[in-house]
Amino acid sequence: MSPPLPGASRSAIDRTAVAPFQIATRSRERIHVLQLTFGMGIGGMERVIMDLCRYVDPERFRFSICCLNVRGPLADQREAEGVPVYFCRNQSRLAKYLRGVELAGLMSKLKVQVLHTHHLPAFIDGTIGGRLTGVPVTLNTDHSKLYPISKPWALLERAASMMADEVVAVSKHTRNDLIHQQKISPNRISVIYNGINIRLTADTPVTELRRELAIPIGDKIIGTVSRLEDQKGLDLLLNAAPHVLRTRPNTWFVIVGGGSKEQQLKDLAASLGIAHRTRFTGWRRDAVDLVQTFDCCALSSTFEGMPMSLLEAMALAKPIVATAVGGVPEFVRDGENGILVDSRDPSLFADAVLRVISQDDEARRMGENGRRRYQKRFTAEAMARDYAALYEKHLERKGIPIR
Hints:
Shape: elongated
Low-confidence stretches: 1-12, 15-27
CATH superfamily of the largest domain: Glycogen Phosphorylase B
Strand content: 15-25%
CATH class of the largest domain: Alpha Beta
Radius of gyration: 22 Å
Mean pLDDT: 91
Oligomer: single chain
């Protein structure tokens, strides 16, 4: 482990870095943005943070990341790209209660000018730390959550929102939840859609990827990239599979990802008699490569903000079948670049899948529409520009010059 920050105890915030963190003279002139989050695991929120660090104008801004609870596998990747990652090493109950004070020490030493938090615990702890330190600008991005939340958390979020400069929602649906569920003032909430850039990990032909999955050329693949957790509602996809297979027996279901429900979902596939037509790949660093093999990208979630896996599908011109939850209808337009399902009835989900895989011309049209829609609105650069403009607006309001 690297030595702790000067003046900090060994049990306080620490950083494991690829190389020692050195701030050049030029770096000190740029606005320092600290991204504060639960951890840098594998998920949509973490990808947003990664891409903000990559694509927000490096001539004017520099970034650090602080993980409150876990470092996560993406932390090393970020540091390899030159962004320092700090981690709150002390996870005792007392340390968590005092996390805001601990963060204040970090932000003071790093001379943070913009604190950008992600999700509720980081928002609350970060707002406390920012207030104690006098960080000029505090923003939070809400990536959506399942309501209702407990009353204490709701009250804390409302209090934090009154101290923050702005709250960002990843969809209009998420914004409406914050207004109606959390009673946060509409004037304090803006919407910035997530964006991504596709990075294929290798030039592996689709035929080779299919061979690896042991799926014959010509058979249809219904695929999803997802955390295997309750939120993702993958029982709906698996329960729809027998209905699909009765009509199109040459269909396969590929589930890319891992999580606490993996064995439960495998057991469900076995009980439905579809295990021989289902592939569970586990976590894959080349997950986006596998999306190239899909004939249809499925999302069966119970709630969502703005799922990145569907943006990947759009970027790769894949037609989509998705539950009409959260912000999904704001970028998947029914009949245009996919099909939305308003029910958790497996037969209805299966009918939507069959409509896509049974009409190649229709599937191709939806895929191309999705690609054009992605290119117009949902790239990582578009998202980064929107966040940079938000940072600048509040910095200028506080009288802080930007290069």
